[in-house]
Amino acid sequence: MPLGFSFVFPFLLIMALLQGGAGLLGRDLCGWRPTLILGLISAFIAVTPVGGLPLARWMISFNANFSISLTAILFYKVTESSFGVKLLDKNDLLTCWVFSLTAGVILYPMALGLGRFDPYQAGWGFSWLFVVVCGVTILLLIMKNRFAVVLIAAILAHNLRLLESTNFWDYLVDPFMVLVSCIALSNRFLRKLSKRP
Amino acid sequence: MNRRLVIILILATLLLYAWPMLGWLSTLGREPATFATYAPSTPVVDDKPFMVEEFINPDPGKGMVHVGSICELPDGRLIAAWYGGTREGAKDVAIFLAIKDPGHPTRWSKPKRVVDRISASRELYRYIKKVGNPIIFAGSGDHLWLVYVTISAGGWSGSSLNVKVSSDAGATWNNSRRLTLSPFFNISELVRNKPVPLSSGGFALPIYHECLGYFPEILWIQSGREDGAIAFRKSRMTGGQSFIQPSVVAYGPALATAFYRCRSDEKAVGVAVTKDAGVSWSEPQTLDLPNPDSAVDAILLSDHRILLAFNDSVQNRENLRLAVSNDRGADWVRIATIESTQGEKYSYPYMIRSQDGLIHLVYTWHRKRIKHVVFNEAWINARMKRIAK
């Protein structure tokens, strides 16, 4: 199962890059037919062997656990470019950035050695982390925030062991997701600042 | 989202979280795992002092070898693992095994290549730049575990841990399995020391992290329900930047002492204790034994003294000495100099005690060969008596 799923993120990334490139060239690739063609090209690129390994597995060589949140954001971008459908609205995205940045700030400094407490330990088995994320998910569902669906996908993927990691943290967040969240929140902040009279 | 969908999704969320919770609830009634082998299996009948030295691998010429480990199979055979190649980090570096039958007390088999970067890349289905640090240990029956390091990018800080298991005493091995132990690209996790067996049938394997922080950890590893499956998690012994490469000596179901390689300016062997079977560890202290930022290893003797192998210097690895403690590591008596040559390196000692009571010490000799030194407790006692005079 994890081997097949490991191609999903690279496939989506290639597709998003191709869509971005087409956008820069002024080509509109919205619709079923261009999406199907682009999807086939992306799948072909992902499985093309380079130096004996499919391109997707080269990506996995350097980061085997792209989080479900980042995969969902990429899926959102691809479906938006393909069909003009926004699966997440501004509020959902803001929740995603804040959640990921908060998770990253809690996790990475301590996991990399700041102090004796290692929050990463909480991702194995069942712990406070599961209770907190479950609570956040239910709260977001009550608030009708669609980022909750991404969190449901994360626990589902964890239970199915779709990533190489068995640790729940890796399904929620990864360093790239934190970076993307930082950039998105900074942009938002700068935009708000520039709008002020 | 309409109200009905919200209710359905809330129920789905609760169900999905119930799955890991049920797994956790099923473990609540179980006794927590404790250290299983805290006393040597049989008291040794001391006779004559005995000590013999030999090399495990042939002279590699211009090449290098490093990080030897050794374990005993149930039939008394010894099996050693190390890595070697033309130079550290070279593309031809591989992990080797050699076996020694009890019937051939001084002859090790020809080294057999068990993992290299090509086979690791194939088994893990990803790019592997280099392999290293193999630790071999025996499980139940003829099961052998090999935990080793692979690097896809960068130096040793880019290390990840992998496991291979053999169910026929090393004749064949299953495919390597990558362990995800760090949230930051799963890098900077390394292994160097032998594990402590647990009452659950698993192992507490001392590992360490080296990236922004340098600290010791324990990898709790257990065979899974299905054949070839493993379950694992890790816990931190302490944080900071000073202590790595823990060598754990258990002397009770819940009691153990860990000895650390010291990276700080204190340049002394670090020590910490646990009273809850490795769940928590005391703040590290330093011993009155020097440490030139090099690995140490310790084992328990039959009368609960601790034997430590270490580089007795604050500057270099030009000597390798043995010391004994009667009081669980507070005070030490240096009993023997195993090696001492100016300008040479003797490093990464690794000790086990075999069923016949012999102590096996392996270490890197001049970075050229893995040396195997065998002695008994009578030899240790004779050295102690000589020093007391």
Q: What's the gist of this structure?
A:
The complex is a heterodimer of chains A (197) and B (389). Chain A is mostly helical. Chain A has ten helices and two strands.
Largest sheet of chain A: 2 strands, antiparallel
Low-pLDDT windows of residues of chain A: none
Overall 3D form of chain A: globular
Show the largest interface.
A-B, 55 and 45 residues
Cα distance, first to last residue of chain A? 54 Å
Q: Would you count the extended β strands of chain B for me?
A: 25
- Which structural class do the helices and strands of chain B define? mainly beta
Radius of gyration of chain A over all CA atoms, rounded: 18 Å
Mean pLDDT of chain B: 91
Structural shape of chain B: globular
Q: State the total count of DSSP E strands of chain A.
A: 2
Q: How is the main sheet of chain B built?
A: 5 strands, antiparallel
Sheet with most strands: strand arrangement of chain A = 1-2
Count, helices of chain B: 3
Distance between the termini of chain B: 86 Å
Verbal overview:
The complex is a heterodimer of chains A (197) and B (389). With 197 residues, chain A is mostly helical. In chain A, 70% of the residues lie in helices and 2% in strands. Chain A has 10 helices and 2 strands, in the order H-H-H-E-E-H-H-H-H-H-H-H. In chain A, strands 1-2 form a two-stranded antiparallel sheet. In chain A, helix 2 packs across helix 3, helix 2 (8-24) runs parallel beside helix 5 and helix 7 (128-142) packs antiparallel against helix 8. The N and C termini of chain A lie far apart (54 Å). Chain B is 12% helix and 43% strand. The N and C termini of chain B lie far apart (86 Å). Chain B is mainly beta and 389 residues long. Chain B contains 3 helices and 25 strands. Chain B has helices spanning 3-27, 117-124, 377-388, and strands at residues 51-55, 64-72, 78-85, 94-100, 112-116, 130-138, 144-151, 159-166, 177-179, 189-191, 196-197, 203-210, 214-223, 230-236, 243-250, 256-262, 268-274, 285-290, 297-300, 306-310, 319-325, 333-340, 346-353, 359-365, 369-375. In chain B, strands 10, 11, 12, 13 and 14 form a 5-stranded antiparallel sheet that branches. At the A-B interface, helix 4, helix 6, helix 7, helix 8 and helix 9 of A face helix 1 and strand 14 of B.
